[in-house]
Every structure is written in C-alpha cells, then in structure tokens.
Write a structure and sequence with these properties.
By secondary structure, this protein is of the alpha/beta class. It contains 14 helices and 13 strands. The protein has one domain: TIM Barrel, CATH 3.20.20.80. The strands form three sheets. Strands 1-2-3-4-5-7-10-11 form an eight-stranded parallel β-barrel, surrounded by six helices. A three-stranded mixed sheet has the order 6-8-9. It has a two-stranded antiparallel sheet with strand order 12-13. The chain binds beta-D-fucopyranose. Beta-D-fucopyranose binds next to loops.
C-alpha cells in the first residue's frame, strides 16, 4: 500500500439543506410542497435534524477515525429575509465548527449547495442584476464570523448540475425547461461570483475552490470532437468549462466524482446521448449510476494534467440501501487514489458522500447514500457496517502514512 501523506483528509461530506432540517426560508422548501416535484412524494421536513443533533453525527465520524468533514452553510438561515440577518444562525454554525474541531475534524465549508433564500429566488435568483452583490454580502458575513476556524472554503457546489436540473430538464427549482440561454448567462455570472468570493475568502491560511462535478466519460462515439464539445456545454451537468474559467481562483480543485458515462453522441441528439448505467445491474448503484472506481484515477489524472493543482475529492459515493457494495466501493476508489498519489498526482483528501442518508433532492428520501442509516420514523441514526469498514481502511492508511 502506498502511504498517503500524514495530513491527508479522510472524511465525509454533507450539505445543509439535505441534512439540517426545517429550512423553511429556502426555495427548495416551497418546491417540495408542489405535488409531483419529488419522485417519492417525501419532503425534507426535519431531514436528519443535523441542526440540533450534530454532536451525535460528529461523534460517529470521529469514532470511525475521520479527520475531516465537509458541511455547507444555508444562505436562507443567515438571511431569511432580504432585510434580515441572523447572527444567531451564524453563531450556531460557529458552534458546529467548534464541535468539529474539538473532535479533530477539519472543516471544509461550502457557501452555496444548490438552495437559495426564497426572497432571492422570488426576485429571479441568479438572474437578478444584483445577484452578485447579494451573494457577496452573505459571503462577507459568513467569513467574518467563521474565518478563524476555517481553512478550506468551497464557494459553489456543482454549478453545472444546478443549471442542468434547474434550467434544462426543469426537475429542480426554478423548474425551467430548455432555457439554454439563461443557463449560459448564469454560468458566466457564477464564474464572476466565484472570482469575487475568492478574494473575500482568500488569506494566507485559507485555500479556496469550487466543487466540480465530473464524471469519467469514455466515448463510444465515432465523433471524438463531439465528446470534446460536450465538455463545454453546461447542460451536460459537468463543470469542466467552469474550472477552465476559474482556475486562477482555485487553490485546489474540488472533485465530486460519482460515475462512468458512455457517450453515444451524435450531432442531432447531444443531450440524449449519455448513458450512465451499465448493462449489468450489479455494476450500478440503487439509482442506476455505473460504479467505476478507475474513473476517480482517470479524472484526477486529467485534472492535474490540465490545471496543475492539488485535488480534493469533495464527494464520492453511491446509493446502496442494503449496504452491500459501499465498503468495497470505498476500498476500490481509495485504491485508485493511492495509484494517483503514486504517480505524483497530489490528491489531498477523500470525503465520502455521505456521512448519513439524507434528502436526495428530486429523488426524495428513497436513495440511501449514508455511511449512517437514518430511521426517519424515529429520527434516529444507525451506523452501517460500511462506516466501520471505512474506519478500518482509514486507520490502515494512517498507520503507514509518511
Ligand atoms: C451530488 C450533490 C449532492 C448529492 C450527491 C448524490 O451531485 O452535490 O448534493 O445530491 O450528488
């Protein structure tokens, strides 16, 4: 086994809306109430109650031997109304981060993970001409309160996934379909917003990035150039273009890697051209994403070759309600990261999605991504076997770390 560096970040990732519960001032809460928007009809309501029971979850993370956790801040909690700021909410986040540090968990803090305050969404959200100013006011407040405790900042999570679901398929708020023009306008704005936020967050102790969604794409297409073109389209839900545009303002690259895509593109059907399920169902997760550990190596290699920056795996995981594949999935992906490190590709952390089952957006509570199982009837958390197996793996690697 190739030793991982001693300071390698071993952990998990969650987001505020999916886990905290009761985020009633967010656009998603309203979206969930409309029948048909959530596939299984569930609502986030108290989600995992992370807001109140965070110590229980942090204890499990610590017991498993993790030394890092990625969380996010809910803008709507900090600014529930346009003219109302909640110092109380900010202080609560400070407490959560303090509790993480007490347990030796390095915080990786995301400022925007898909959800918007309702007041902002009602004013056209990112399309609002003051969007940048509004978001940066929020970023400044968060930074002022949390700056002493946080080294790693992620400004935006998977902008292209948001644009794809919100403006192309319409399956997420604001529910627009084929609004390609708006998607491109927002992408360009988010690029500017990331750059401006970077300069607020950047100091000699901080490292700032975005979390980019990138799959491992291989082409079954005879048109190789189409594959290349697809990388640049925000509708595909991949963030290559975002990274190209923001690379100077990324101290490292946050990589969310989930699956393999076979591209069967042709000029007429670029959007219907990607398959992410394998013919053999045993090679897919519960929601049909093809499990492909080699991809984490391939994508990291390509990222390093392109941008020459350290890479943090900010998400990687699978829906697996029976917990049959998760432990092996982690071992296989970590093995591929070890291979990357061996080849001098500087991967600095692995954050598994997710610490616990949570509200999986338009798919509701059915997909089970957690190392910890949530019993939503009793609102109790039950560690799965894979949590402890991940812990065993972490300890093995930590013991031989250089
Ligand atoms: C990623 C999202 C995360 C979660 C996982 C399964 O695209 O960032 O919130 O939904 O997928």
């Amino acid at each position: 086994m190739k030793p991982f560096p001693k300071n390698f970040l071993w952990g998990a990732a969650i987001s505020s809306y999916q886990t905290e519960g009761n985020n009633f001032a967010s656009d998603w809460w309203q979206w969930e109430q409309q029948p048909g928007n959530i596939k299984d009809g569930s609502v986030s309501s108290s989600a995992c109650d992370f807001w109140n029971q965070y110590e229980t979850y942090l204890d499990y993370a610590k017991q498993a031997g993790m030394n890092a956790l990625r969380i996010s801040i809910e803008w709507a909690r900090i600014q529930p109304e346009q003219n109302q700021w909640s110092q109380q909410a900010l202080d609560h986040y400070k407490k959560i981060i303090g509790a993480m540090k007490q347990r030796g968990l390095e915080p990786i803090v995301t400022l925007w993970h898909f959800t918007l305050p309702l007041w902002f969404a009602k004013q056209n959200g990112w399309l609002n001409e003051n969007a940048q100013e509004y978001f940066l006011q929020y970023v400044k407040r968060v930074y002022e309160t949390l700056k002493n405790g946080v080294r790693y900042w992620i400004t935006l999570n998977e902008p292209s996934v948001y644009l794809f679901n919100g403006f192309i398929t319409g399956s997420w708020p604001p529910g627009k379909k084929l609004a390609l023009h708006q998607a491109v306008r927002i992408r360009n704005k988010l690029i500017r917003i990331h750059k401006a936020a970077y300069h607020i967050l950047k100091n000699q102790n901080t490292l700032v990035s975005i979390a980019a969604n990138l799959s491992w794409d291989t082409g079954a297409s005879q048109y190789k150039n189409i594959n290349r073109l697809l990388e640049w389209l925000p509708p595909r839900g991949n963030d290559w273009a975002m990274l190209h545009a923001t690379q100077r303002e990324c101290d490292f690259i946050g990589l969310n890697y989930y699956f393999h895509n076979t591209i069967r593109a042709n000029v007429l059907h670029p959007f219907a051209s990607v398959t992410s399920s394998h013919k053999d169902p045993s090679r897919n997760s519960d929601i049909g994403w093809e499990i492909a550990p080699q991809g984490i190596y391939e994508v990291s290699k390509k990222l390093y070759k392109t941008f020459h920056k350290p890479i943090m795996i900010t998400e990687n995981g699978l829906a697996d309600a029976k917990d049959e594949k998760r432990a092996q999935f982690i071992r296989d992906h970590v093995k591929n990261i070890a291979q990357a490190i061996e080849k001098n590709i500087p991967v600095i952390g692995y954050l598994h999605w997710s610490l616990m089952d949570n509200f999986e957006w338009a798919l509701g509570k059915t997909p089970r991504f957690g190392l910890i199982e949530m019993d939503y009837n009793t609102m109790t958390a039950h560690p799965r076997q894979s949590l402890w197996e991940y812990g065993t793996l972490i300890r093995q690697y930590i013991n031989i770390a250089s």
